[in-house]
Amino acid sequence: RQVHEVQSHMGRLETSDKDSVHLVENEIQARIDNIFSNLERLEILSSKEPPNKRQSAKLRVDQLKYDVQHLQTALRNFQQRRYLREQQERQREELLARTFTTNDSDTTIPIDETLQFNESLQSAHRGMDELIGSGTSILAGLRDQRVTLKGTHKKILDVANMLGLSNTVMRLIEKRAFQDKFLMLGGMAVTCLIMFLVVQYLT
């Protein structure tokens, strides 16, 4: 529930104005910190689960941790983009507000530096897009692994149940063999007694 709340707040970042975007960022960061604190307690609680549920609980905690880390990365990426955008706006306003006079030594505009800065920004944007794409691919891979682990866990439980049934059958067989052993010994004793009586009284 807390993760979904953070995701819904992330959607407010793009629509927030300059005055309130900082408040939204601080609120999201506080919620993320709270989730990380809860995840630490969940890890402790998952280690105290019964053995047959411990692995499943740990997988759920790890998935939540990865989702929150992805949200943290998305927040930092947004903050970086906002910082670059604000820096560009400040530089543009400074350039537009600047007054030039005759024979002013600062009337030249550093075109090369501006182009280099623009190329650096484009490179940073491309790097962020690649990072987001890589994170999306990693998330999809982890979800596939989660499905595979669930299937493996189910198979392990089925095998464990079969082994439990096999142990029960083996115990019944051992019990039956033990009973048959006494029946055989009893039958031998009765047969010997009958043979003794026949020899004793009929001869």
Automatic annotation (TrEMBL):
Membrane-spanning ranges: 182-202
GO molecular function: SNAP receptor activity; SNARE binding
GO CC terms of this entry: endoplasmic reticulum membrane; ER to Golgi transport vesicle membrane; Golgi apparatus; late endosome membrane; SNARE complex
UniProt membrane topology term: Single-pass type IV membrane protein
GO BP: any one term: protein transport
InterPro entries: GOSR2/Membrin/Bos1, v-SNARE_N_sf
Subcellular localization(s) per the UniProt record: Endoplasmic reticulum membrane; Golgi apparatus, cis-Golgi network membrane
UniProt keyword Transcription present: no
Keyword terms of this UniProt record: Acetylation, Coiled coil, Endoplasmic reticulum, Golgi apparatus, Membrane, Protein transport, Transmembrane, Transmembrane helix, Transport
Family classification: Belongs to the GOSR2 family.
Purpose: Involved in transport of proteins from the cis/medial-Golgi to the trans-Golgi network.
Name listed for the protein in its UniProt record: Golgi SNAP receptor complex member 2
Organism: Bombycilla garrulus (Bohemian waxwing)
